[in-house]
Amino acid sequence: MTVTPVGSEFQVNTYTTSPQFRSAVAVDGDGNFAIAWQSNGQDGDGNGVYAQRYNADGTSDGDEFQVNTYTTSSQFTPAVAVGGDGNFVITWESFFQEGGSNTGIYAQRYNADGTTDGDEFQVNTYTTNSQSSTSVGVDENGDFVITWESNGQDGDNTGIYAQRFSSVNSDPTVVNPIADQTADPLNSFSFTVPDNTFDDADGDPLTLSATLENGDPLPDWLSFDAVTSTFSGFPTGTDLGTISVSVTADDGSDNPAVDTFDLTVEFPNTPTTTNNINGDGTNNTLNGTSANDLIKGRGGNDILTGRGGDDLIQGGSGADEIRGSSGNDLLTGDGGDDLLFGDKNDDILIGGGGRDTLQGGKNDDILDGGGGIDELRGGAGNDQLFGGNGRDVLIGGAGSDEFFLIPDTGEDSINDFEDGIDTFVLPVGITSDDLDITANLSGDALISFNGQRLATVENAAGLIDGTDFINV
User: Fold this and answer.
1) CA 381, CA 366: separation in Å to the nearest integer?
2) Are 222 and 216 in contact (CB under 8 A)?
3) Which among 64, 91, 229, 407 counts the fewest CB atoms within 10 Å?
């Protein structure tokens, strides 16, 4: 058989300062090949190991790259082997890396595209004296064997040792389950999945994704950034309740790891009830007691009054009239066109669907219109008003009130903004600098974000500036 050159000889190393030497080469079944060598001073301290991949036609596949990540002292005398699928392994000697008395054997696996498969790892477990003169072989399945010389290990000068490695993938696992989380309505929510939640024994990179436990997408208010592993969103009063969220960690195999946690949306001062009063689906008139009552109107057009205690009152479907009376109450209209009155103390009013009227009454109240075209009146006290979805009317009343301006929830009309007393609330990530504040011919201020009208503020032209805005 005659051996003939294919093309001309070519230079492999692109870095040429000081010597590059002791090269090794391996070729896969398609003719693609990889060359490794040691280079003096290139990594900043002694010798380092570098490599270059090539296509079967002899063209370089990417740039030369450094193999060793540990660079103290010298890493040298590489060996390389390529498997049947194009994956390859490079092994080398490293001075004092293992904390032993001389050199040790290290290796790095690579995928066929040249990306690392896990981190570099130590091959030898016996570390007395020196381990040197390494070589490696890979089979078509990606399993490989690394051999080396070890000084004094067998009791008489040097001996030959080897270690077999399997390329079988280790599935990712859940190491530290995610703790249950709580989100406050009308506040920006952010939670980053801890780095130590999942582990992959192979060191494979993990891609995270998130859904509800049943596989459905996350609710509209909640999003997940796979790059930063962060959940974020702005829940409102209509998002109250608990959802089970599953986070999946995938290493590209068929068996990803999944961890599920509960995310509860609730107001910090939600009443704890001890007494239940239920409607029967018709038009009911239900009155609470002096205890903390849970009153459910259910179907029908109901009249529900909490009276004493801190009450949780739910209108259900139908056009309901709900009154908290005394106590710190949480009132939800749910479906239908509802009338909600907080009356005394610090109350939370949530309209739900329909065309609702919410009136806080005395003290510091939270009003959330929910869906539909609603009218919100804070009354006395320092109130928080969020119209929700739809074109709502917001009237703060007496006190220092906060008007929530949340994109994608419709344009609200704010009728009684008092400059220097009331404020506008923006979600985290949006500042007053991001807004366009103009005026109409009637002397109203118009607040817009990215071309989207957030609010018309009556008789406030020229009064609103950056000092009138806060973030939550």
Assistant:
1) 10
2) no
3) 407
Tell me how many degrees the CA angle 14-20-21 measures, rounded to the nearest 5.
135
- For residue 89 the two structure tokens come to 């392994």
8 Å CB contact between 52 and 110:
no
Grouping H, G, I as helix, E, B as strand and the rest as coil, residue 72 is: coil
User: Cα separation of 254 and 189, whole Å?
Assistant: 32
Per-residue tokens: 456: 């018309």
Beta carbons within 8 Å of 359's beta carbon, 6+ residues apart: 339, 340, 341, 342, 349, 377, 379
Sign (positive/negative) of CA torsion 296, 300, 301, 303? negative
Q: Which pair of tokens denotes residue 74?
A: 């010298």
Rounded mean pLDDT, 43-65:
95
Distance of alpha carbon 308 from alpha carbon 311, whole angstroms: 8
237: helix, strand or coil: helix
Percent of the chain with pLDDT over 70: 100
Q: Average pLDDT of the chain?
A: 94
Whether residue 131 is predicted with pLDDT greater than 90 in this model: the reply is: yes
Do the Cβ atoms of 306 and 327 come closer than 8 Å?
yes
Indicate the Cα dihedral angle 191, 238, 296, 306, nearest 10°: 90
pTM score of the predicted model? 0.70
Question: Does pLDDT of 101 surpass 70?
Answer: no
**pLDDT of 253 strictly over 90:** no
pLDDT in tens, 222-244: 999 999 999 999 999 999 999 99
Spatial distance between the Cα atoms of 134 and 91, rounded to a whole number of angstroms: 7
